[in-house]
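Escalated from tier 1: 1-deoxymannojirimycin holo job.
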Amino acid sequence: MGKKVSASTVRGGRYLQPRYYFKRPRRLALIFLAVISVTWFVYDRQSLTRVHQEEILRLNEEITILKNTLEDMRVPMKATGGQTQSEIHEERYDPITIQRREKVKDAMLHAWTSYEKYAWGKDELQPQTRDGVDSFGGLGATIVDSLDTLYIMGLEVQFQRAREWIANRLDFNKNIEVSVFETTIRVLGGLLSAYDLSDDKIFLEKARELADKLLPAWDSPTGIPYNRINLAYGNAHNPSWTGGNSILADSGSEQLEFIALSQRTKDPKYQQKAEKVIREIQKNFPDNGLLSIHIDPRTGVASYGSITFGAMGDSFYEYLLKAWIQGNKTEEVKFYREMWEKSMKGLESLIKRSTPSSFAYIAEKFGNSLTDKMDELACFAPGMVALGSFGYKPGEAEKILALAEELAWTCYNFYQSTPTKLAGENYYFHEGKDMNVGTSWNILRPETVESLFYLWRFTGNKTYQEWGWNIFQAFEKNSRIETGYVGLRDVISGTKDNMMQSFFLAETLKYLYLLFSPPSVVPLDAWVFNTEAHPLRIVTRDGLPEDLSANQEPKIPRYMQGRKEGILDYK
Ligand code: DMJ
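Tier 2 regenerated the structure:
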């Protein structure tokens, strides 16, 4: 049966016939206009939604930054000499620098949270395998190393969790053999710094407990310490590969921590042990102030080995200067400065310049010959030289500061010259070819950003902040993974390793954070950093805070004073 077609269907159907419109062009134009309007309306709504979403994201980011800033404002910080962060912000700090500082804080939070999640209580996090490893004998190295960074960044909740672990879980009575140097700079230094910042007695108690365990290491015929010790039994010795010798940096970089401990406990024994080492070394100290990396603990004489400001030599020179600063530059501690100035003459004798670009570098020495090699570790030297420049007479001070700046440029180029923009472990210099990477790993080391921090503080030149920011971005790009930060096995290919070194949290991120903070956060006339970047408060030799002492030395010479305030730079 055929379907009946109604009159209305026939009438409606005609609108679908193109013929109908060809005969009525005005209607066609109207329909065309209507279609365009609807399409435009829909498109406009969609792009408006997109713009709104982007705007919401941007606002959310700003809210996070503002929240962090607000949180900072609430934390009155001893590290700022009693100033609150809000007072510091009044120092007209520019928004880009504040944002950069927040990004560094976010990096610290990511590193710390990953450690808490996967390796809590272990010395260090292995981010790729999502577990922890006891690289320092099981003393919770990352926790102790991070304490002051958490405090300075105002990460209070995290700081409290770390504090609880230290109070309840940190145990030194362990049948384990540890490095005296690493344990001193990371654990003892971390505890003392946390005490100085927070005034919480638990940190001082733990520091004393640890130092007492370490003290037998100094029981050698000369008082120069053996480098390894069993914490439970106190038997100390040197590793077999040194032929019975002590390592220069390992033996001569405990003065800051042990002197600080004596000042705070009023027990002189720690200071006496550490200071005797330098007095002993002073007996045979050469005019150029350079010592080989091996020193005999039976005779006190530096024996065979290379002379270097890199691995195994570095912090010996650093502590000569810093012990003088820690001791308020008084007559009593003048010998430290004198020895350091000799070493600076020695350092100048090792300076060479590459071709064709004239990069200044610190060569290494073996016997009478120089090797055209420099470790990234030696990149702490520009910062040290800048810090020590203020003890020289005008003229000489500027000259030595200029050398520091030249060396920092070289170190920055260690980073810039690789495809990942991260530095290798060491560099060789060749005639006509400037520098090339030797050992090509990068383990998140801090030395270059440490120097940038000092140079920025002393020159006020914002270029150093830019360089630091570039290095930070390279870490973000190559080293940040979902479960923390890793080093690179190779800075050319970018292959990742599986270790988040505790000094990344203690030093690298702290120096970067301070590079983007006003100079009144941990001011250098009131604090001195140990070699693991733990700030120790400068007090008089008898333990009074520095500003209460009678015979104050001029703190910072005139040519640096504006820099200390940080105001000149942020107008
Ligand atoms: C740190 O433990 C200290 O800075 C030490 O003085 C040298 N090596 C590492 C960081 O690279």
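The longest strand covers residues 426-430.
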